Amino acid sequence: xxxxPASEVPALPGKGRDLRIHDTATGGRxxxxxxxxxxxxxxxxxxxxxxHIGHAATYNAFDLVQRVWLxxxxxxxxxxxxTDVDDPLLERAVRDGIDWTGLAERETxxxxxxxxxxxxxxxxxxxGAVEAIPGIxxxxxxxxxxxxxxxxDGDIYFSVEADKNFGEVSHYDAELMRRLSAExxxxxxxxxxxxxxxxxxxxxxxxxxxxxDGASLGPGRPGWHIECVAIALDHLGMGFDVQGGGSxxxxxxxxxxAAHAHALTGEHPFAKAYVHAGMVALHGQKMSxxxxxxxxxxxxxxxxxxxxxxxxxxxxxHYRADWEWTDDVLQEAAERLGRWRAAVSRPDGPSADALVExxxxxxxxxxxxxxxxxxxxxxxxxxxxxxxxxxxxxxLVSRTVDALMGVAL
Length: 409
Hints:
This protein has 409 residues and is of the alpha/beta class. The protein has helices spanning 53-71, 87-96, 100-118, 129-145, 174-183, 224-235, 250-265, 297-302, 307-315, 327-344, 353-364, 369-384, 393-405, and strands at residues 20-23, 28-31, 37-42, 75-82, 125-128, 149-152, 155-158, 200-204, 220-222, 240-246, 271-277, 280-282, 285-286, 323-324. The longest helix is centred in the N-terminal third of the chain and has 19 residues, at 53-71.
């Protein structure tokens, strides 16, 4: 599966600093010190509907991680999946009377268009669950054969007891895990399971649903969590730098993924840091497909909204914060974009050397985008007031905003 085209990232004078970021597993900030190549895995979409602002906020956050790393003169190895077969996708296809593969292809293509418009840097590997199945099957077989998985009426479940570190990502108690499992695709009430939250690794073929050859597992399809584990291990290996996604993936998805990998390899940790973006609400409720309260990036673009304004609206909120999308949020972003573009359109202005370091400092401390935006606002205000004659300043500001925040002025 192909990703989307990459926008050019301008080079800035000097060198950025190592990223300090909030790690869910430890509950505090950690300083990431990757080698020459920083490794990041971000969980992708289940393509049964178009990209909404909640998606965009998440992928914007991890785009910033890439940009901070690139500014340290490192390379970045970024991997993302697409869950192109799953219950919600199949249910939507049945509801709409269309082929599930066509639905997945259509919505994945739209997602690529939205990411391109928002200037989100693409992954080096963009892998669909279906194309990963040949690598998933032997992993499930190994987990079963080593006693970390068991069969129940033809389905294969992972035993969370197989990982001595289970629970270290979320630190949730058993009651909360059980509730979230029920809400997020699990089946804690199914009789016969060793632990109610044990997740499915391989679902035996169901009538009327797609299935694939599972070798000794029998025909079926993979569970959600093992998909990402197989892809991450194949392309990044154990101990990669960041596992990323929305905060709704802390449990069960990231907790279970870590447990699968630990049990499978006997190594620890799966990822050095677990980083999660906050949720975006509309009309007081989390924006989600199940609630139907979505603001689509593609719809905003069709209405003529500049993608740079959408991105500035996202950047106005700290990536870990839960916040609400409103018309005012977008209007304020459009006005900021107008002020910034007017400021850099002049032939000279106040020196921007200090601004570059202010933006770097803000972003390397847990991606503090509101602080970074405020720094550019101050420079634009000085420019409006006629406070300088540095002919290189407007260009340097443009390159800084582009390189570190992905906004083209």
